[in-house]
Design brief:
Helix content is 38%, strand content 13%. It is α/β, with parallel strands linked by helices and 422 residues long. The protein folds into 2 domains: 126 residues, Aspartate Aminotransferase, domain 1; 250 residues, Aspartate Aminotransferase, domain 2, CATH 3.40.640. A hairpin with a 2-residue loop joins strand 4 and strand 5. The protein is globular. The relative contact order is 0.16. Bound molecules: ligand PL4. Ligand PL4 binds next to helix 5. The site of ligand PL4 has 16 residues, from helix 5.
């Protein structure tokens, strides 16, 4: 196959440029409202900057929550088999828009004890992608509410969708921030939630590592119902929960299916960050304030702008949910939880107050009197360790730093040793 030759990239004269610009399609004005660059590329930029000045430094990343360990054998074999199936005429498959029915059924069985119909479970390319698309369901009229701090896509995606205004010092106009602090045990005061809100809620939480209890989630559901709000519940880290009393899904709460959508993914459980596979649960019982079916609109929207997840990834995910695959998920998440324990122990030995890391892969550390970016820079300078500054997750994250437990064991141990220099 040979591509068509392209013209050279000599550029245009300024007169021609002005002429072209006056005829170009306009930028979505909401993009101009975004305050700064996206958090994780900004951290990568600062890492590159540091490495350029210190070329010999062996930098260890406890920053972005990106899995590091190879896929485990049973799941990996299923992915390989999935690719092989595409290579044979008898087993070849093309578009599978809503997902492999067996996989939807298996997710329903393993995560929801078959509480739903399989048409209420939509397979996707990951939970972040689902959150971005879900924001189209609510559009510029949404009234976003977020835990503060929170995973950036809830806020930045709302800004892009036009549901939030200009960035101000304390966040974005139009977004209700619910501070999650040491004082409130990282579960927010819900009284600020107004009628017909769109509440983003994440448990186990990124970045604080806190996991909401059954009673706390019952209060959240009660608040959503009494304010006619809808919850987008992000359960991306549910397989890290080891305490059996803690809920792994919002649907463990009575009435949640009338007020909540749930997103989840194989990224952090089976190591599919690069494979890409997730799902959303949109119950039939869920209605917009005008009474319209959220499920019907989600099906319509997905069919219009999404063409389904990789078939290979779906075969892998199916294997991840059988007995052998689930044992591998437990082994992999246990490994990262042990990393988290090592990080927490190292920080506590230094007298640094921290939380999380027991039912989640993030440790949230407090640096009193120090700005998050200053603590980030000090840890990088002193220990050559990358972290994530808490303020990048929202105003209430100021003064905190997030340590991610995703890393090779030897790197985690070395990083923990280096932290003693702080
Ligand atoms: C870096 C609460 C990480 N470039 O892989 P997905 O799409 O199924 O899951 C993404 C996701 C969804 N929900 C929560 C998450 O924390 C994540 C992943 N977050 C992090 O370090 O906070 C990876 C971030 C990636 C990004 O911007 O998402």
């Amino acid at each position: 196959m040979r591509g068509m030759p392209l013209p050279g990239r000599r550029g245009f004269s300024s007169a021609a440029k002005n002429d072209i610009l006056s005829n170009m399609a306009q930028r979505n004005s909401t993009l101009a409202h975004l305050k700064a660059g996206y958090l994780f590329p900004e951290i990568a930029r600062r890492r590159r900057e540091f490495a350029a000045v210190h070329p010999g430094a062996k930098i260890i990343s406890l920053g972005v929550g990106n899995t590091t360990e190879p896929l485990l054998p049973h799941i990996c074999a299923a992915l390989t088999e999935g690719a092989r199936r595409l290579g044979a005429v008898e087993t070849y498959s093309g578009y599978m828009d809503e997902g492999l029915p067996e996989l939807r059924g298996k997710i329903n069985e393993i995560f929801y004890q078959e509480h739903f119909g399989i048409d209420e479970i939509f397979i996707s390319d990951g939970s972040k992608c689902d959150i971005g698309r879900l924001q189209w369901l609510f559009g510029p009229g949404a009234r976003p509410v977020v835990q503060d701090p929170s995973y950036p896509v809830y806020v930045d995606g709302s800004v892009i969708a036009g549901a939030a205004g200009e960035g101000i010092e304390t966040g974005y106009q139009g977004i209700t921030y619910l501070p999650c602090t040491k004082e409130n045990g990282y579960f927010p005061d819900l009284s600020k939630i107004k009628d017909e809100s769109l509440i983003y809620f994440c448990s186990p939480n990124n970045p604080t590592g806190a996991v909401s209890t059954q009673r706390e989630l019952a209060r959240l559901v009660e608040k959503a119902r009494s304010t006619k709000s809808i919850i987008i519940f992000d359960a991306a880290y549910s397989t890290y929960i080891r305490d059996p009393s803690l809920p792994t899904t919002i649907y463990a709460i009575d009435g949640a299916e009338e007020c909540a959508i749930e997103v989840n993914s194989f990224s952090k459980s089976a190591g599919f960050t690069g494979v890409r596979l997730g799902w959303s649960v949109v119950p039939h019982a869920l209605r917009f304030s005008g009474g319209e079916s959220v499920h019907a609109d989600w099906a319509r929207l997905q069919a219009t702008i999404f063409n389904g997840a990789s078939n290979i990834a779906q075969f892998g995910a199916l294997a991840a949910l059988d007995a052998e695959g689930r044992a591998e998920i437990t082994a992999l998440t246990d490994f990262y939880l042990e990393n988290a324990r090592l990080i927490r122990t190292a920080l506590k030995a230094l007298g640094i107050e921290c939380t999380g890391g027991d039912n989640s892969p993030y440790v949230w550390a407090y640096f009193p009197g120090e700005q998050s970016w200053a603590a980030f820079a000090r840890i990088l300078e002193t220990c050559h360790v990358i972290t994530t500054p808490g303020s990048g997750f929202g105003p209430a994250g100021e003064g905190f730093v997030r340590f991610s437990a995703f890393g090779h064991r030897a790197d985690i141990e070395e990083a923990c040793g280096r932290l003693a220099k702080l």
